[in-house]
């Protein structure tokens, strides 16, 4: 524990005096003092201003009856009318809950598995083994949702699916996976974990490599065993990153991965009870009658709740451990 | 939290600032700006005796479909542009909206009003009326007689009436091109004969018999259908088992009672026939006429049919006409037949709406006059028409015995030609040079249709969905959830499934939408008398 | 790589063997579907339809690849476009991201929280498709311009915050002492911080490169059919989609008939898309492969 507080200690000690000093100075002075760092962030500021903030007023689209000829800001304002279709079919609660639960499972289990893999990879001695397995684990990331859907069908379908061929060989009853809603949360979560493990574990693995190796060696000489090393050196080192990534993902907790769900479940509404998310619902409702305003309304709904959640969690984290917060 | 709030306030300020900039922009040249305000009816300036074409312009069309991957279209364009330059001092450039995500791209194009002059549209598959309501198309009522005189003269007045939105013409119909896009099942004539089915199949029961035999005798999946076909199969059933006529309104569940009762709106989903269908399909599904996991199957039925791996496919008559030729090559002697679903009772085979293919002038076109002049020539001048639709004679096609065929040394990759022009094909030019890729006895089927066909009765009826848009979205969702399992017999007890379906439709606002359609139909009926 | 020089206790042996077992299993689960894709892509479509996917082709068929490479010029062109964009995008983006990441984690930078929030906020709210399209096409005038694809991918909030977090682990004392020596912030970043952040740069650079490599959405929206050479993913996406839509479009009768092995083509295109980037991967890998395994010799 003592090892990693060293760095943070430095930050905390050195930061406050500077901050305090500046609070009293006028705005221009502050600007001048931060000039060089501001310039270094300027490209980023400009970038997001252009590509994100300029289009942002378009959120207004969610409140109008969009007339192409009049343009966004001259079209008639209709209040929350565009949001009504979310409630109309009575599915909003189900799909919202499904979306949130799936995302929480993806975020929590995903990060845990990625940390687990990164830590284990770090324990592996053979560099070649590391290289090969890391490359192989990255492969699923490249497989598009469409193909994931096809692969899943080929594994699971009743007639000639790999799983059922095996079961039949073992003289067992074949499983009708595509008519068993309760199986799908597991299948979907597993698929998501499988796709993200290579990509995500790299972040943690890279983080591990930045631990000062002298600390580890010193600990080894002191007789620290593998479990203790992981428990007291590596995991605490990864904690800030873990919290940061968690916070980062929370904002999107209402935004579902359409490709994954659509390609795995598709038209099979017998599974919707456990697999329907906001995106698939919106797709069904709007694919036939295309409506930009209604899709804007949906994403505003998703953004709003994501935003509230993140502000709250960030505030909470800031209370407990200011250095871990997102902003 | 406080700090975040401060941040939020700062951001809000930024957003407001941007808003101010943007609205400022739009007053000058930005979105929703001037071009649209300027151009609605140039005809109002008073038609001139001599049209001024002194300024050279390039007219841009957008066609739906993939672009050719060779340069044949460019070469043909060179030829037609020589002629166009000569005649109307203009060039025609064709851009394409590819099939991948075409709805997104098509709607974005209309919504943002980019610089183009004409675009494909269709009342049944490209949302022509909703887009017209959103102001995507220019009112060309006054322009047509002046700038597209040949088209103006050749399209009869009652056809123009079908192109009117709020009393103004907003599109040019492909009304002189015979197409039958009524759907039906394709089955193999050779197998049917082998099974002792000698008469052409014209009902579902015989089709079921055929499928059972395909399973028993051939050991194949009789109809290797994909999950997304469910909605069409439901339409097929209603076409066969009721006299109803589907209305061109969103949702695809609203019909009028029959040709004799055109103004009563209802949905067969609430009739006994829906339960009958659910039962029959459960029977078929249990009998293994399709895959057990059909709902998740996304394969390709037509390729399976061509490979001799399944016995049934389904789509419309136009597709049949070319598929038949392919089947004769791939499965010689297969004698592919079609069971047009409307012929089971034969009371509701309606001629296609003439706005199945159409071409509109974009609301913000800068040169609507010249665009129309170019269109008029491309549609009515035989040389230009052929260049646009067939390519260059001798390279892309040759004429042998009055039929259009491929020249010797024709290379598919290098010489194939298409321009996806679906907004004004003409029978008189197409029939003069029929393609060998179309089944030569398709006329027999057309002749059979002629015995039953009825003219399209809803010309000029345009449904305004704005008052019930929310409910329609909800109905779409309910339908998408209930139809696939019912149609493929995967919904458990058929009666209970249909009952649940009906109740959810009701809850989603079925009655409100029905009343709105009925109301608008009544108004339209009154306005016609 | 030398074997351990420091004694290994039993717990390390246990953890190590468990690591080998678990990672192997996981890698196997990731490899099998991939091998299935390869096997299927070389199989005759009719066989696939009947028997499903296979590791080893029951009936060998190259048609899928022949169709993907039907116009070799176009394939090579799209590879070129994608490779060029990936290269420059990663180089420029990485520089800007790491610079911002460094500045944003400096505890003495007064605006770091405000700017971090300014960046993060864009992941929460976005203007949506239409305003974004208007921005690119009308305001910036980038329709049918490669920049419409290139620019928006240069940075992402996720990568900036990742970079910021990585850079945090470099002690602030280093910056401070350099400042006392009179070095400017930019110089500190270039001469001291950058060389120390190799694993971070490799990771963020890899992710950035991947986002360029996998990009198709902006290309689909902004590069129309008349742009001859289009980014690889869009090109391949279209090869497959073209067929699917032709099948079911209301106006299909005009298109010349062709044999399309749809499923095997999907596999083939996916493999064609993965190929080159997987070859590059081992080169980047060396920057973060060096873990801190106990006993591994330094250097």
Q: What would your notes on this structure say?
A:
The complex is a heterotrimer of chains A (327), B (529) and C (299). Chain A is mainly alpha-helical. In chain A, 71% of the residues lie in helices and 0% in strands. Chain B is of the alpha+beta class. Chain B has two domains: 174 residues, 3-Layer(aba) Sandwich (D-Maltodextrin-Binding Protein, domain 2); 239 residues, Periplasmic binding protein-like II (D-Maltodextrin-Binding Protein, domain 2, 3-Layer(aba) Sandwich). In chain B, 46% of the residues lie in helices and 12% in strands. In chain B, helix 3 links the parallel strand 1 and strand 2. Chain B is globular and about 70 Å long. About 5% of the residues of chain B have low confidence. Chain C is mainly alpha-helical. Chain C is 70% helix and 0% strand. Chain C is built from 14 helices and no strands. The radius of gyration of chain C is 24 Å and the shape is globular. The termini of chain C are close together.
Fold topology:
The complex is a heterotrimer of chains A (327), B (529) and C (299).
Chain A lengths: L1 H22 L3 H7 L1 H19 L30 H5 L3 H32 L3 H16 L2 H12 L5 H8 L14 H26 L3 H9 L4 H25 L7 H8 L6 H4 L2 H9 L5 H29 L7
Helix pairs in contact in A: 5-9, 5-11, 6-9, 7-12
Chain B lengths: L1 H27 L5 H5 L18 E8 L7 H17 L1 E8 L4 H11 L5 E4 L6 H6 L9 H5 L1 H6 L2 H5 L2 E2 L2 E2 L2 E2 L9 E6 H6 L9 H15 L11 H12 L3 E2 L8 E4 L2 E6 L5 H15 L14 H6 L5 E5 H14 L5 E5 L17 E4 L6 H13 L1 H8 L8 E3 L2 E3 L6 H4 L11 H4 L11 H11 L16 H19 L6 H14 L2 H19 L1
Parallel strand pairs in B: 1-2, 1-3
Antiparallel strand pairs in B: 3-13, 4-5, 6-13, 7-11, 7-12, 8-9, 9-10, 14-15
Chain C lengths: L9 H32 L3 H7 L11 H6 L3 H34 L6 H13 L4 H11 L7 H4 L6 H12 L3 H9 L4 H12 L1 H17 L2 H6 L9 H17 L13 H28 L10
Helix pairs in contact in C: 1-14, 4-8, 4-11, 8-11, 9-10, 11-14, 13-14
């Amino acid at each position: 524990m003592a090892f990693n507080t060293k760095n943070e200690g430095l930050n905390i000690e050195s930061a406050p005096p500077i901050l305090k000093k500046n609070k009293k100075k006028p705005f221009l002075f502050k600007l001048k003092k931060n000039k060089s760092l501001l310039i270094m962030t300027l490209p980023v500021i400009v970038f997001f201003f252009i590509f994100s903030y300029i289009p942002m007023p378009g959120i207004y689209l969610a409140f109008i009856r969009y007339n192409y000829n009049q343009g966004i800001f001259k079209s008639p304002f209709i209040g929350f009318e565009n949001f009504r279709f979310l409630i109309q079919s009575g599915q909003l609660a189900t799909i919202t809950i499904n979306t949130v639960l799936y995302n929480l499972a993806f975020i929590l289990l995903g990060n845990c598995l990625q940390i687990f893999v990164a830590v284990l990879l770090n324990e592996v001695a053979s560099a070649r083994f590391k290289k090969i397995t890391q490359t192989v684990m990255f492969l699923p990331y490249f497989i598009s949702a469409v193909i994931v859907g096809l692969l899943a069908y080929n594994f699971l379908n009743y007639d000639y699916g790999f799983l059922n061929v095996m079961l039949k060989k073992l003289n067992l009853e074949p499983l009708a996976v595509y008519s068993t809603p309760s199986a799908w949360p597991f299948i979907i979560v597993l698929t998501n974990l499988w796709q993200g493990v290579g990509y995500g574990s790299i972040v943690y693995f890279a983080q591990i490599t930045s631990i000062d190796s002298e600390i580890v060696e010193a600990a080894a000489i002191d007789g620290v065993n593998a479990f203790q090393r992981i428990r007291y050196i590596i995991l605490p080192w990864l904690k800030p990153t873990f919290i940061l990534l968690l916070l980062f993902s929370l904002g999107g907790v209402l935004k579902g991965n359409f490709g994954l769900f659509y390609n795995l479940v598709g038209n099979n509404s017998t599974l919707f009870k456990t697999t329907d998310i906001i995106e698939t619902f919106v797709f069904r409702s709007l694919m036939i009658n295309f409506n930009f305003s209604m899709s804007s309304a949906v994403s505003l709904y998703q953004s709003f709740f994501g935003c509230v959640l993140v502000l709250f969690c960030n505030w909470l984290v800031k209370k407990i451990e200011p250095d871990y917060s997102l902003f | 939290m406080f700090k975040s709030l401060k941040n939020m306030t700062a951001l809000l300020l930024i957003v407001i600032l941007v808003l101010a900039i943007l609205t400022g922009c739009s007053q000058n040249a930005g979105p929703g700006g001037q071009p649209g305000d300027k151009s609605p009816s140039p005809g109002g300036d008073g038609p001139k005796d001599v049209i001024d074409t002194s300024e050279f312009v390039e007219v841009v069309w957008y066609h739906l479909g993939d672009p050719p991957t060779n340069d044949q279209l460019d070469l043909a364009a060179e030829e037609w542009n020589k002629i166009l330059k000569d005649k109307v001092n203009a060039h025609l450039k064709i851009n394409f909206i590819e099939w991948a995500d075409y709805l997104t791209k098509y709607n974005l194009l209309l919504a943002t009003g980019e610089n183009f002059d004409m675009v494909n549209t269709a009342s049944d598959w490209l949302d022509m009326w909703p887009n017209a309501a959103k102001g995507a198309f220019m009112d060309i009522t006054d322009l047509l007689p002046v700038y597209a005189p040949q088209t103006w003269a050749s399209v009869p007045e009652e056809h123009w009436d079908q192109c009117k939105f709020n009393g103004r013409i907003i599109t040019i119909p492909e009304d002189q091109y015979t197409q039958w896009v009524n759907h039906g099942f394709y089955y193999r004539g050779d197998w049917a004969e082998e099974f002792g089915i000698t008469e052409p199949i014209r009902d579902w029961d015989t089709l079921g018999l055929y499928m059972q035999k395909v399973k028993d005798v051939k050991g194949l999946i009789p109809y290797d259908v994909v999950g997304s076909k469910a909605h069409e199969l439901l339409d097929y059933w209603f076409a066969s088992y009721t006299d109803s006529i589907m209305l061109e309104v969103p949702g695809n569940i609203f019909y009028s009672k029959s040709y004799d009762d055109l103004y009563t709106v209802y949905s067969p989903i609430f009739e006994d026939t829906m339960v009958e269908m659910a039962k029959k399909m459960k029977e078929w599904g249990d009998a293994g006429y399709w895959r057990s996991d059909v709902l998740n199957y996304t394969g390709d039925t037509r390729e399976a049919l061509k490979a001799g791996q399944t016995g049934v496919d389904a789509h419309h008559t136009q597709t049949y006409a070319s598929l038949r030729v392919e089947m004769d090559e791939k499965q010689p002697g297969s004698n592919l037949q079609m069971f047009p679903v409307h012929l089971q009772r034969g009371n509701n085979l309606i001629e296609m709406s003439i706005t199945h293919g159409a071409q509109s002038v974009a609301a913000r076109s800068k040169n609507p006059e010249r665009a129309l002049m170019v269109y008029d020539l491309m549609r009515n001048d035989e040389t230009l028409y052929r260049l646009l639709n067939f390519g260059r004679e001798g390279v892309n096609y040759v004429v042998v015995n009055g039929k259009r065929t491929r020249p010797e040394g024709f290379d598919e990759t290098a010489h194939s030609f298409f321009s996806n022009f679906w907004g004004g094909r003409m029978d008189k030019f197409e029939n003069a040079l029929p393609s060998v890729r179309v089944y030569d006895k398709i006329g027999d089927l057309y002749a059979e249709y002629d015995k039953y066909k009825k003219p399209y009765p809803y010309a000029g009826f345009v449904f305004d969905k704005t008052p019930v848009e929310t409910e329609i979205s909800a109905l779409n969702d309910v339908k998408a959830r209930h139809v696939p399992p019912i149609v493929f017999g995967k919904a458990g007890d058929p009666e209970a499934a249909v009952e649940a379906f009906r109740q959810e439709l009701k809850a989603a606002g079925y009655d409100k939408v029905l009343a709105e359609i009925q109301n608008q139909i009544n108004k339209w009926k009154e306005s016609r008398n | 790589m030398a074997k351990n020089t420091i004694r290994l206790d039993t717990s390390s042996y246990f953890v190590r063997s468990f690591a080998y077992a678990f990672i192997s299993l996981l890698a196997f689960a990731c490899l099998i579907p991939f091998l299935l894709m390869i096997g299927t892509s070389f199989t005759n479509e009719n066989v696939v339809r009947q028997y499903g996917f296979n590791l080893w082709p029951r009936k060998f068929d190259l048609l899928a690849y022949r169709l993907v490479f039907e116009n070799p010029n176009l394939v090579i062109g799209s590879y070129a476009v994608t490779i060029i964009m990936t290269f420059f995008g990663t180089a420029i983006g990485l520089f800007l991201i790491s610079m911002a990441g460094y500045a944003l984690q400096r505890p003495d930078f007064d605006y770091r929280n405000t700017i971090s929030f300014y960046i993060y906020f864009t992941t929460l709210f976005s203007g949506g498709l239409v305003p974004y399209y208007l921005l690119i096409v009308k305001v910036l005038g980038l329709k049918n311009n490669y920049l419409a694809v290139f620019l928006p991918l240069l940075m992402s909030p996720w990568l900036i915050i990742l970079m910021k977090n990585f850079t945090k682990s470099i002690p602030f004392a280093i910056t401070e002492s350099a400042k006392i020596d009179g070095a400017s912030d930019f110089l500190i970043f270039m001469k001291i911080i950058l060389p120390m952040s190799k694993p971070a740069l490799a990771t963020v650079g890899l992710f950035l490169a991947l986002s360029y490599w996998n990009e198709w959405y902006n290309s689909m929206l902004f590069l129309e059919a008349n742009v001859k050479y289009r980014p690889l993913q869009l090109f391949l996406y279209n090869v497959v989609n073209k067929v699917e839509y032709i099948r079911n479009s209301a106006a299909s009768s005009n298109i010349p008939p062709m044999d399309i092995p749809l499923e095997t083509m999907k596999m083939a295109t996916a493999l064609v898309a993965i190929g080159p980037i997987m070859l590059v991967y081992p080169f980047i890998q060396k920057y973060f492969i060096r873990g801190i395994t106990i006993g591994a010799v330094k250097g």
